[in-house]
Amino acid sequence: MATATSDLPKTADMLAAMRALNELTLSNAETMIKLQSSSYEKYSTLALDALQEAASVSDFEGSKSFLTKQGELSKRIAADLTGDMETYADLGNRYLAEVQKIMSASMGTYGAAEPA
């Protein structure tokens, strides 16, 4: 039968696992926010630059040049978005792997059956 004293090491182990999960989640959230902020700045700048360029179009040749650049820009943005999504997926996969590692270690310690 477990006593309050014999449960203290298990409680400490459980709290250590919770602390590790909280630290991991905080780190992951910070990284995600930095990535999102960077993406927001990059795509906002591209959009504003395109609007400024569009506002400066004054003739047919300028219009033609602008539209050609927009096609090239669209390809670049599609490639950048693909890269961004791969980065987010990698971050999520690494987070999941770390959570699983922490939980496995915790279950090995805290989930052990007590002697009868």
Question: How would you describe this structure to a colleague?
Answer:
- The chain contains 2 helices and no strands.
- The model has no long low-confidence stretch (mean pLDDT 89).
Would you spell out the secondary-structure blueprint of this structure?
Elements lengths: L3 H52 L4 H51 L6
Helix pairs in contact: 1-2
Which structural traits does this protein have?
116 residues, mainly alpha
Average of pLDDT = 89
Uncertain ranges: none
For the termini, the CA-CA separation is 7 Å
What portion of residues is helical?
Answer: over 70%
Q: Helices and strands, in N-to-C order?
A: HH
Number of strands: 0
Strand content: under 5%
Shape: rod-shaped
Number of helices: 2
Please state the structural category.
Answer: mainly alpha
Rounded to the nearest angstrom, the radius of gyration is 26 Å
Major β-sheet annotation: none
Briefly summarize what is shown:
This protein is mostly helical. The chain contains two helices and no strands.
